[in-house]
Prior knowledge:
Blueprint: E1 2-7, H1 12-27, E2 36-41, E3 53-54, H2 55-63, H3 66-82, E4 94-95, H4 99-111, H5 114-126, H6 135-144, H7 149-156, H8 162-174, E5 182-185, E6 189-192, H9 197-212, E7 227-228
Helix pairs in contact: 1-9, 2-3, 4-5, 5-6, 6-7
Amino acid sequence: xxxxxxxxxxxxxxxxGKHRFQRGVALMGADAPDVDIHYxxxxxxxDAGPDPVPLREAYRAxxxxxxxxxxxxSQTQQxxxxxxxxxxFDRGQVRANTLQAHRLMWLxxxxxxxxxxxxxxxxxxxxxxxxxxxxxxxxxAGTQAGLDEARIRAFLASDEGLAEVGEQLAQxxxxxxxxxxxxxxxxxxxxxxxxxPEAIADILGRIAAEQAAPAxxxxxxxxxxxxxx
Length: 229
């Protein structure tokens, strides 16, 4: 079962959703399908400039003041920690453009471990407060994904992968993806948001059952939580 995941590495619900999806597959036990996961770029804030801005400052401008900002960060942190993820919004997180981080993900998918790269980038931002536009942060994440430091630095200094990442961003628009995380199953079914593991297991089970049904029954959808793309 092919799983195409559109996400952004500064989206807290993408990190939460990633782990909930993995738990949902695990809940299926022996009935779990073999999943072939592919990560794709999505930018929540494509207009973020090259200079980092304190996250709380950016949130105050976006959501309208300190009280709302602290409410959002507190609730998100509590949810993440309940999933076993070390969210810590007191580590000096910054608003930064994620294009270079997505390029690193593209490289890791071809020459390293994209799963490890994603995890390293999420952890760097949400648990360590590191700037995901900083080359040193990207090098550290890339080496955790099995990439060579010299290769990463040369890659970041080039335009390699830029067009391909642009194609991923364009494909998200073509598919009508406007929020992340978005999980596209076998190019046909869309699961949006950080769904509970039990819901993920149920949806995947119904998709697997539909795919195993006679050809005449194909294309009927899998219920309200999954839809054709």
